[in-house]
Design brief:
The structure holds 2 protein chains of 2 kinds.
Chain A: H1 2-19, E1 29-34, E2 40-44, H2 57-67, E3 71-73, H3 91-95, E4 101-109, E5 115-123, E6 128-137, H4 142-158, E7 167-174, E8 177-184, E9 191-196, E10 200-205, E11 211-216, E12 223-228, E13 234-238, E14 244-249, E15 255-260, E16 267-272, E17 279-280, E18 288-293, E19 299-304, E20 311-316, E21 322-324, E22 332-337, E23 343-350, E24 353-360, E25 366-368, E26 376-380, E27 386-393, E28 396-403, E29 409-413, E30 418-424
Parallel strand pairs in A: 2-3, 2-4
Antiparallel strand pairs in A: 1-29, 4-5, 5-6, 7-8, 7-30, 8-9, 10-11, 11-12, 12-13, 14-15, 15-16, 16-17, 18-19, 19-20, 20-21, 22-23, 23-24, 24-25, 26-27, 27-28, 28-29
Chain B: H1 2-16, E1 20-22, H2 37-43, E2 83-85, H3 98-110, E3 116-121, H4 128-148, E4 156-162, H5 173-179, E5 181-186
Classes of the chains: A mainly beta, B alpha+beta.
Chain lengths: 429, 189
C-alpha cells in the first residue's frame, strides 16, 4: 500500500524525467588545478575531414593529454596547407610556435558506415615520425578511438602506458538514493549499474575488468556482492553473520580478501569469487581490515590496530610473516599497492586532517601528496601515475586526483551530487 | 535510447518499488571492428537485468512477531530506550547506559525467543571501511556486556554501519557525538 502512494507521488517526476532533454546522469566535470613543472608543448591539428562528423576526435585527444597534467596545447592556426600526414610537417612551421611534437591525421568514409582514421605523431624539432596508427571504426567508436590515439601519443612521448581508455567507478549520493556509476576515465558516458535506497561503498574492480565487487547496506547490515558488468546480474559474495566488507581482488581475479566479523571481531578472510571456500587469512585480537593485494599476488597490505593504533601491515602469503609498514603518526589506513610494485598509497591523519601519502617499499620513504582535510579512499591508475580519491568541497563530496609525485592535481565534480568511493578500472584487454 | 532507459527504469521502479536495482549498461566496451564481441555487447543493452521483488532483510533470528512485549515500545519503560552513545575513540559502555543495557539483557534472558541486532555507528571522520570495523567494535562491546548480564550469544547479532547512517548531518563535535552510537533493534518489530 505504501508502494502505491509512493508511485503516485513519483508520477509527475517520472513524467518530467521523460520530457527532459538530457538524462540526469552524474557526469563528472574534470578540471586541472595544478600541473607538472614543465609541460610538453604539443600541437594537435584537426584531422582532414574531421568536420564531416559531429564528434571532434582531436578535441577529445587534446583534452585527454591536457588532463594528464603533462601537456599543453600549441596553436596550429595559420599553417597552410593544413598538414595531414607525417611528411607534411615542416620544422619551420613549428619552431616559432614552440611545439615539441605535432599530431596530424585524416579521416575518410570507407563504406558500410565505417570510417578510416589515420594519424601520425611527429617530433617537430627533428621532423621524425614517432608513431602512426590507422583505425577502421564506426562513428559510435570515435570516442574510444580518440582515447586510443591519446594513449599512443602519451606512451610515445612519456614512455608510460596511457590510461585514457580506462574506466572509473564511483558512488553518487543524491538525498536518500545511492548509485554506483561506471564512466570513462574522462568522466563521460557515466552509466548506473546499481541503484539503492541504502548506502553502497567499497567498489572494487576485478583485475580482468569483468566484474565489480561492492558492499551494500540494503539488508540492514554490510553484505558483499559481486556484479557482472556485462549482464548486470549479481550474486552475494559474503553474507555471514555480522558484517561483511572491504572486498579486494587477487591479481588473477579468482579470489577476494574480505573482512568478516562472523568469528568475532573484524578479521581477514579469503573467499573464491563465487562465494565458496571461505578461509581465514590471519588472526589477531583486534581489528584487521582493508586488505589489498600487491600486484605480484604474493602479499596483502592491510590495516590493523594490533599495535594500539590503526597502522598498515604487510602479510607475506607464502611465509605468513606479518611486517608493520607505517610508523609515523597514530592513524595510517587504506593502503593501495601501486601497480608498478614500487610501493603503496595510503591515508594518514595529521593533526586532525586526513591526507594522502605514498610510501616506497625499498626506501620506506613517505611523501605526503595532498593537504586534506577530508581526503580518503585512494585508487591508483593502472600505470601508477595518478591517484583518484574522495575529497570534500563546500560541504559536498567530490573526487580528486593527484599524480604520484604530487604535482598534477585534478578535481572531478558532479553537479548536485555527493560523489565518493572511486575505483580505477584496469587497462582494457 | 536514454529516454527509453529512464522510462524503463522508472516503470520498473514504480511497479516493484524495489529498494535496490541492478542494471546492465549500454555497451561501454567498444569492441574492435569485426570482433564477435560486438553482437554480444549489443545484446546486453535492451532492458537490462533488473532484480525483481522486494529486498528482504534476512538478518536471522526467529520471527518473534507477536511475541514481543509492548514494554519495548512504551516510552515510560527503559526498554524503549534503544541508543547507547560513546565517547570519541572509545569502545567502552559508559556507566550512564548500564541500566539500559541491563534491562535489555534481562529481557533477552527471560524471553528466549527474542533476538536483537546491535547496530554500531561512528562519526564521519576517517576511512569508511575502518569505520565499519570501529562501529562493529562498539556493537561487540554492548553485546559483551549483555552476555555478562544474562543474554545468550545466539540472541544477539552485531553489525556495523560505520559512518554511513549518521543521526546528525552536522560537521561539528555535537553532531559527531550523536553519531557515535549503538542502536538496539528487536528482530520482528
Amino acid at each position: 500500500m505504501r508502494c502505491l502512494r509512493l508511485a503516485r507521488f513519483l508520477l509527475p517526476f517520472v513524467a518530467l524525467a521523460l520530457l527532459a532533454a538530457a538524462p540526469a546522469r552524474a557526469q563528472l566535470d574534470i578540471d586541472i588545478i595544478g600541473g607538472s613543472g614543465t609541460l610538453t608543448p604539443i600541437a594537435i591539428v584537426p584531422f582532414e575531414n574531421e568536420n564531416n562528423w559531429p564528434l571532434g576526435i582531436t578535441g577529445i585527444v587534446g583534452a585527454d593529454l591536457v588532463r594528464s597534467g603533462l601537456f599543453k596545447l600549441v596553436d596550429y592556426a595559420g599553417i597552410v596547407p593544413r598538414p595531414t600526414r607525417a611528411e607534411d610537417v615542416r620544422a619551420d612551421d613549428w619552431r616559432s610556435r614552440g611545439a615539441d611534437a605535432v599530431v596530424v591525421g585524416s579521416m575518410r568514409a570507407v563504406g558500410e558506415g565505417r570510417v578510416e582514421v589515420r594519424f601520425a605523431l611527429v617530433d617537430a624539432v627533428k621532423v621524425k615520425q614517432l608513431a602512426a596508427m590507422t583505425y577502421v571504426v564506426t562513428p559510435a567508436q570515435f570516442r574510444a578511438t580518440a582515447h586510443k590515439i591519446a594513449d599512443v601519443i602519451y606512451q610515445a612521448l612519456t614512455g608510460d602506458v596511457g590510461v585514457f581508455s580506462t574506466r572509473i567507478a564511483y558512488i553518487a549520493k543524491q538525498g536518500p538514493r545511492y548509485q554506483l556509476y561506471v564512466a570513462e576515465a574522462d568522466g563521460y558516458n557515466a552509466q548506473v549499474i546499481v541503484t539503492s535506497n541504502e548506502p553502497l561503498l567499497s567498489p572494487a574492480w576485478s583485475p580482468d575488468g569483468t566484474r565489480i565487487a561492492y558492499v551494500s547496506l540494503e539488508n540492514k547490515k554490510p553484505v558483499v556482492y559481486v556484479q557482472s558488468l556485462e549482464t548486470g546480474r549479481r550474486q552475494v559474495l559474503a553474507n555471514f553473520r555480522g558484517s561483511n566488507s572491504a572486498p579486494a581482488w587477487s591479481p588473477d581475479s579468482r579470489r577476494l580478501a574480505v573482512t568478516l566479523t562472523k568469528d568475532g571481531g573484524s578479521q581477514l578472510f579469503l573467499i573464491n569469487a563465487d562465494g565458496s571456500g571461505v578461509q581465514r587469512l590471519l588472526s589477531s585480537p583486534g581489528i584487521d581490515t582493508e586488505a589489498n593485494f600487491t600486484p605480484d599476488g604474493k602479499a596483502v597490505l592491510f590495516t590493523s590496530d594490533r599495535g594500539g593504533t590503526p597502522q598498515i601491515y604487510r602479510l607475506s602469503l607464502g611465509s605468513n610473516a606479518v611486517e608493520r609498514m607505517t610508523f609515523e603518526g597514530g592513524y595510517n589506513v587504506s593502503a593501495r599497492a601501486t601497480p608498478d610494485g614500487k610501493g603503496f598509497v595510503f591515508v594518514r591523519r595529521d593533526g586532525g586532517r586526513f591526507q594522502l601519502a605514498i610510501q616506497d617499499f625499498a626506501t620506506r620513504q613517505v611523501q605526503v601528496l595532498t593537504a586534506g582535510p577530508q581526503d580518503e579512499s585512494p585508487s591508483v591508475s593502472p600505470n601508477s601515475k595518478l591517484i583518484l580519491y574522495a575529497a570534500e568541497q563546500g560541504g559536498r563530496g567530490i573526487l580528486a586526483a593527484v599524480s604520484s609525485d604530487g604535482r598534477v592535481k585534478q578535481r572531478l565534480v558532479a553537479p548536485a551530487t555527493d560523489v565518493r568511493e572511486p575505483a580505477w578500472g584496469p587497462l582494457p584487454r | 535510447m536514454r529516454k527509453f532507459l529512464i522510462a524503463a527504469f522508472a516503470v520498473a521502479f514504480l511497479a516493484g518499488c524495489q529498494s535496490t536495482e541492478t542494471q546492465s549498461p549500454a555497451p561501454i566496451e567498444e569492441p574492435a571492428p569485426g570482433s564477435a564481441a560486438a553482437g554480444a555487447a549489443a545484446g546486453g543493452t535492451a532492458g537490462g537485468a533488473t532484480t525483481s521483488g522486494v529486498t528482504t532483510s534476512g538478518i536471522g533470528g526467529t520471527a518473534a512477531g507477536g511475541g514481543l512485549s509492548p514494554a519495548l515500545k512504551d516510552p515510560k519503560n527503559i526498554l524503549s530506550k534503544r541508543t547507547i552513545y560513546f565517547d570519541y575513540d572509545s569502545f567502552v559502555v559508559k556507566d550512564d547506559y548500564r541500566a539500559q543495557v541491563e534491562a535489555h539483557a534481562k529481557y533477552l534472558q527471560t524471553t528466549r525467543a527474542a533476538n536483537i541486532t546491535l547496530q554500531g555507528h561512528t562519526d564521519e571522520r576517517g576511512s569508511r571501511e575502518y569505520n565499519i570495523a570501529l562501529g562493529q567494535k562498539r556493537a561487540d562491546a554492548v553485546k559483551q556486556l549483555m552476555r555478562v548480564l544474562g543474554a545468550t550469544e545466539i540472541q544477539i547479532e552485531t553489525v556495523s554501519f560505520g559512518k554511513e547512517k549518521p543521526k546528525s548531518d552536522g560537521h561539528d563535535e555535537s553532531a559527531w557525538a550523536q553519531n557515535r552510537r549503538v542502536e538496539i533493534i528487536y528482530v520482528g518489530e
